[in-house]
Amino acid sequence: MNRRNFIQSGALLSGGLLISFTILKANKLAALADTADLNVFAPNAFLNIGTDNSISVYLSHVEMGQGIWTTLPMLIADELDVDLKKINIKHGGADKAFNHVIYGAQITGGSSTTWSEFDRYRNAGATARTLLLQTAATRSGIAVESCKTEDGFVIAGSKRYTYGELANDAAKLPVPAKVPLRSPADWKYIGKGSKRMDARVKTDGTAKFGLDIQFPGLLTAVVAHAPVFGGKVKSFDAGKAKAVPGVREVVQIPTGVAVIADHFWAAQQGRKALQITWAHGAGVQLNTGIQTAAYRKLAASDGLLVQEKGDVKAAFTKAVKTISAEYVFPYLAHAPMEPLNCTVKIENDSCEIWTGTQLPGGEQAAAAKILGFKPEQVKVNIPFLGGGFGRRATPACDFVSEAVHIAKASGRPVKMVWTREDDMKSGFYRPFYVHNVKIGVDKDGLPIVWNHNIAGQSIMADAAVLFGPPPAIDDTTVEGVKGSPYLDEIPNHFVGLHTTKEVVPVLWYRSVGGTHTAFVMETLIDQLAHDAGIDPVEYRRGLFKNHSRHLAALNLVAEKGNWNRTLAPGRFKGIAVHEAFGSVVAIIAEVSVEKGVTKVHQVDCAIECGLAVNPDGVKAQMESGIIFSISMAMYGELTFVNGELQQNNFYDYRITRMYEAPRINVYIVDSKEKMGGAGECAVPPTAPAVTNAIFAATGKRIYNLPIVNNRLEKQA
Amino acid sequence: MIAITINGKQLEVAADPDMPLLWVIRDLLGLTGTKFGCGVAQCGACTVHLNGEAVRSCVTKVSRAAGQQVTTIEGLSKLNDHALQIAWAELDVPQCGYCQSGQLMSAAVLLRENPNPTDQDIDDAMSGNICRCGTYPRIRLAIHKAAELQREGAKS
């Protein structure tokens, strides 16, 4: 690294100590690789200690609810030996320095922030602490081994220096290639946790989200989009729109017609007054009914090989019984509470953007390309994200690009605001999938052969702009079936993939493949257990005999959730277990079905995630994932008629509400295993645990989500 | 000009009488704590108090607030010390935080009218507010906690 540049930029920024850190070699999508062997130095800034004693931590990942605003600073606080509450926390903005240590690009996703930054952030804190100790040793003449830190001070003999007093001199020292990390015995925060550092600003209205950006001269834009994907503006008349008081301008952009006004309401009124003729294109052929039939046909045949073992054909002749199942999963919208929005201000040779994004570097590059700028001419400011769930990690950079086009076309600073309907209809959905599975069992009811085909669009194909053209097998479609611990135990199996193409753009959705693969695997295993007359927990224990983490999660939830408890009349329980993002989550759901209406009363959850850096944060993410999954399973569905999306807003795309929220108990396995994720991991097993409980209640298996589309009668 | 009192301050705003109160509060008065979530009274992110009652400001015309008292999240307490705000932070309720202004404003009316709400009361009062992060179990606990704080004499 260029130490001189580093010091200069550090001094310029802070008049203090700006800490570089070990950046781990980018290795795109080498998910969960061991990060310890990948040391390469690069200049960067995660931590800034000012001569005024201020301590600022810059976040390489963004806060969208998952709690990294607290967890990442905790890592530094422990190594730097400071009070977490004294740290100023800031999003880092778009910078290659903040690239994901595994994924390469700057991205918040894959439930990866804590485990991927665990070494980098601790090293940033430890490097600062080491340099401060050396500086104090030099200044006091006392051997560095005899100096120690104590909550923001270096103690050198009788001297007691604040970090700020030492910062300027510390910044002049060479950065050691390797610094010692503190012993876990010295951790005050890691493994114990902390209250959220963003809780207070999120209770008094002061937390700023993208939609809250305001400055003099800023106008608001809303956009009329084509009602069908791929549609284009044929012609439009802006006369009536321009007559609306407050409307300043109407401009055509590649994705539609934008109305720019003094405030949102005028812009919205203006949009209503627009008269646009659209050229719909081939998208009008999309009908959910036709799509379902086509995918069912496709999935009934063997697709491109994903994974196989043994002789599937021969094994079916030996099976004492076979079962077949076909599953249909709809498109889903992420629907974060803050509708997508982006503010753009373009000057002669620079551009400034304010937006809640999980992909700051991607947005920067996209904006630069539209404007003919270099990426460094575009500054990306990241306020809090009002939810993400994957939708704010769109490699196509759709909403930021649209806002940049509006600002460019109008020559004005604009805040582009999407209404809930715009957000719902904007695409980049969880794909529509069909699974077709045939299973053969032996005399003991154990599967000896499993043939499994999946049909659906490739998310990675729509992410090619960021990650390059995807391989023929898109893991995001098959993960959870591919690599299933159950398939490991089944001597003959085949997994095949049919990748489809549609006009609808698709995207990762909280827990990605696990949103559907876990549902198929966990409901089928439940069915096999029931058919064999074996308790579903016992049945899984047998199949998990070589998977200790699955067993640990299953056993903990069965014990703490008291699987064998006697339930109140009318209550029934179901179980499911799934591994995703390096963690295993086991769920027990307790439901009732009254007059065909399902209610989830209680959910017990156990997670095996290795070290839980912030245990209450892990619990909060389990609660969050469980309720997200209940929304998805119970109600989530987008449908198309002649290319037009039928859903509009929360009245026809329902989200779980308070009266439907179950009691939730979360247990964390005490584990020395490799650290995994938390943010998404409760989503996959919750939905199948709920429908397994519905089976217990009604005798009916659910093969089509959402649950509300199924007729459920209470068992007589 | 329309005269309204917002968080105790008497103001006159130049707005079309049909303009929703939400956009007057956010875009004309610059108080951004009140959020836009759905625009059709489905999610509750825009909840404010109109003469002490919880209303969805996205569907409330500003003319309805003329001469009336409006309280937004910025006016819920002076020092972020309403019993609910204290309980919210104590129990780490917020996640993304976007819906929480509305949740707090709905909960504040509940707690004023019913200082000792049951779970059923909470379900009834809070089911108009959507939280996509699923903070409902903690909201429920925090409302009980705030009721307790209030009983112990915390400011409300």
Describe this structure as you would to a colleague.
The complex is a heterodimer of chains A (about 725) and B (about 160). With about 725 residues, chain A is α+β, with helices and mostly antiparallel strands. Chain A has three domains: about 5-185, Aldehyde oxidase/xanthine dehydrogenase, molybdopterin binding domain (Aldehyde Oxidoreductase, domain 4); about 210-280 and about 340-415, 2-Layer Sandwich (Aldehyde Oxidoreductase, domain 4); about 290-330 and about 430-710, Aldehyde oxidase/xanthine dehydrogenase, molybdopterin binding domain (Aldehyde Oxidoreductase, domain 4), CATH 3.30.365. In chain A, the strands form seven sheets. Chain A has a seven-stranded mixed beta sheet with strand order 10-11-8-18-15-16-17. In chain A, strands 13-21-20-19-14 form a five-stranded mixed beta sheet, sandwiched between helices. The longest helix of chain A has 28 residues, at about 115-140. Chain A is globular. Chain A starts with a helix and ends in an 18-residue tail after the last helix. Mean pLDDT of chain A is about 95; it is low at about 1-15 and about 20-45. Chain B has about 160 residues and is an alpha+beta fold. Chain B has two domains: about 1-75, Ubiquitin-like (UB roll) (Roll), CATH 3.10.20; about 85-150, DNA polymerase, domain 1 (Orthogonal Bundle). Chain B contains five helices and five strands, in the order ββαβββαααα. Chain B has helices at about 20-30, 85-90, 100-115, 120-125, 135-150; strands spanning about 1-5, 10-15, 45-50, 55, 70. Chain B has a five-stranded mixed beta sheet with strand order 2-1-5-3-4, with helices on both faces. In chain B, a hairpin with a 2-residue loop joins strand 3 (about 45-50) and strand 4. The longest helix of chain B is centred in the last third of the chain and has 16 residues, at about 135-150. Chain B is globular. The N and C termini of chain B lie far apart (about 35 Å). In chain B, about 60% of the residues are buried. Chain B: GO terms for molecular function: 2 iron, 2 sulfur cluster binding; metal ion binding; oxidoreductase activity. Chain B: This is Isoquinoline 1-oxidoreductase, alpha subunit. Chain B: Keywords: 2Fe-2S, Iron, Iron-sulfur, Metal-binding, Oxidoreductase. Chain B: InterPro entries: 2Fe-2S-bd, 2Fe-2S-bd_dom_sf, 2Fe-2S_ferredoxin-like_sf, 2Fe-2S_ferredoxin-type, 2Fe2S_fd_BS, Beta-grasp_dom_sf, Diverse_Oxidoreductases.
